[in-house]
Amino acid sequence: MGIEHSVVITSQGDDLDSRVRAAAMAWLRQRCTPEDPVVRRDELLGFQFEGRTFPLVDNQLGIRKPQGMIAALSILTTYTSDGARAPYDDAVGPDGLLRYKFQGKPQHYTNVGLRRAFELGVPLMWFYGIKPGLYLPFFPVWIISVEAEQSQVSVALDEAQRHLTVDASVSLIERQYAERITKQRLHQPVFRQRVIQAYETTCTMCRLRHRSLLDAAHIIPDRDARGVPAVSNGLALCKIHHAAYDQHILGIRPDHIIEVRTDILEEIDGPMLKHGIQEMNGLPITLPRRRSDRPNRGLLEERYEAFRARTHA
User: Fold this and answer.
1) What is the largest CA-CA distance in the chain?
2) Predicted TM-score (pTM) of this structure
3) How far is CA 110 from the centre of its chain?
4) Using alpha carbons only, what angle is made at residue 253 by residues 249 and 256, rounded to the nearest 5 degrees?
5) Distance between CA 220 and CA 297 in Å, rounded?
6) Which is it for strands 74-77 and 124-131: parallel, antiparallel or unpaired?
């Protein structure tokens, strides 16, 4: 139904194309570390290639197809706040694979560039908006089908997805496998970075600022159908407080006050319990600056009730 399947074509004379892709991805591997995995828009626009500025993203469009290159180089998803959309719902097809929409009319040169990337089987970079002007890069990714009737392409996040069936007739096992990869490779990293950025790389309880020791905790767990990967369903917590929150050792009231379980307050142990847990009781959490990023009150209340039920069990 309007789906073209990928056929890798060997192309001669594409030396510039391959050099740019290799240089850009090598730079991203060096630039984006576990401690600092995101990249600014001005860095992408100012990328230097063989002594000249060679932007990796377009100034106005979501698809970057540089002049002189045989195919599209990158795609970009602009940041939108939780209230502006349902996270990811419109980007995943019935086969569990991600979709990316054409830019304008099908014959637009950027869409032609996407088709060429598909035909040639060349890798691209996908820059996913974490906050305005800040992106989490995914690379390499591949265009594995063109769905002309829907004005979109399907995107593989890794080699495993490149070999999956691309249509609605896939088996349940194939769809679940594709969805799991999509969740692990895109949804979870994007959720983590959006939450940590919203809380300015700080534990909302103890103010610890070491990124490697911070988690993006769900208020309503992601195994629950309502546990959406939205910042308003997330909290930036250090690993100790994340574990304590998940184990109902402490909870957060709907008015943003931390409450430690009564039996835990009565325990006598070492300095971690005293200073790291017990002294949190009654303190307010730190909230994101943007109201749209702050914890959803209804979700907090539901989670707090679960904590109270455990407290009085």
Assistant:
1) 74
2) 0.86
3) 24
4) 115
5) 12
6) parallel
Residue-wise pLDDT tens digits, 32-49: 998 899 999 999 999 999
> Is pLDDT of 62 > 60?
yes
Please give the distance of CA 134 from its chain centroid, rounded to a whole number. Answer: 12
Of the candidates 59, 54, 75, 67, the one whose C-alpha atom is nearest the C-alpha of residue 123 is: 75
Distance of alpha carbon 76 from alpha carbon 81, whole angstroms:
16
Is residue 94 reached through a cis peptide bond, with omega within 30 degrees of 0 on the bond before it? no
* Helix H or strand E segment including 142: strand 134-147
Sign of the Cα pseudo-torsion (190, 222, 167, 159, in order):
positive
254 close to 300: Cβ distance less than 8 angstroms: yes
| d(C-alpha 249, C-alpha 306), whole Å | 11
What does the DSSP assignment read for 23-70? HHHHHHHHH--SSS--EEHHHHHT-EETTEE--SS-SS-SEE--TT-S
Q: What is the DSSP string of 234-274?
A: EEEEEHHHHHHHHTTSEEE-TTSBEEE-HHHHT----HIII
* Whether the Cβ atoms of residue 308 and residue 258 lie closer than 8 Å to each other: no
Instruction: Look at residue 1 and tell me whether its pLDDT is greater than 70.
Output: no
Sign, CA torsion 272/277/283/284: positive
pLDDT band at 225 (very low <50, low <70, confident <90, very high): confident
User: Could you tell me which residues are beta bridge partners of residue 100?
Assistant: 153
Signed CA dihedral, 225, 230, 235, 236: sign only: positive
Phi, psi angles (nearest 5°) of residue 234: -130, 160
Q: Which residue has the tokens 């914890």?
A: 295
- Alpha helix (H) residue ranges in 64-215: 109-120, 159-162, 172-182, 188-198
Torsional sign, CA 224, 229, 233, 239: positive
Structure tokens at 255: 């008015």
- Report whether 98 contacts 108 (CB < 8 A): no
